[in-house]
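Sharing a chain and its predicted structure for anyone who wants a worked example. Both blocks are below, sequence first, tokens second.
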Amino acid sequence: MSNNKMLEIIATSIDDILQLNESGADRIELVSALSEGGLTPSIGLIERAVQVSALPIRVMIRPHSHSFRYSREDLEVMVRDIRAARSLGADGIVLGVLTEERRIDTDALSFLLAEARGLSVTFHRAFDEARDLEEAFDTLVKFPQIDRILSSGGCPTAVEGMDMLARLQRRSQGTPIRILAGSGLSESNLADFLAATGVEEVHFGRAVRLEQRLDGPIVPESVRRIKRRLQ
């Protein structure tokens, strides 16, 4: 395991962005509607976030929270959101698409990635709903633009999914994809989790917010303590 560990944190506002830039985060995932699992933020929020942040920003591309299956009209909306994120200077995007059979929707993914040229791409936790995570990984590795998979190992929390995350981490060696572990991680369980899985990138949401509320403000010292545990 290298010492090049990365801390990604969810932001939903410019206040969050400013706090994270001062607190030791390495990368920001920008979303709206955190209570819905994260939806595409507004154009104004993306534009201002990119202007004020020295950290790379990846923008959630998710038009609704009904499922990870999208109609042609949904995909047209997502393409336009990707285009906007790219034109506004975002570092990358975060997306995920599945078929009714819970496999990676390669047709939809190809359609979306055609608009994502020049952007880094994270495949989000739609991955955890795939019928076979190792099969899903092998599908995603065929798409060079995808450089991260956000996963809890197919379980409600990354701690519960440690065994699968360790397998995915091993599977990712020698590929362009890095495993980004998220859900249920905390200051107290992070060290044991990293040792058990070998994962080098972690993703935090409510755990760094006041009283762990979805609507709570970022607590900078929580971010700093987590970052120290990664060093």
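Comments welcome. The longest strand covers residues 6-11.
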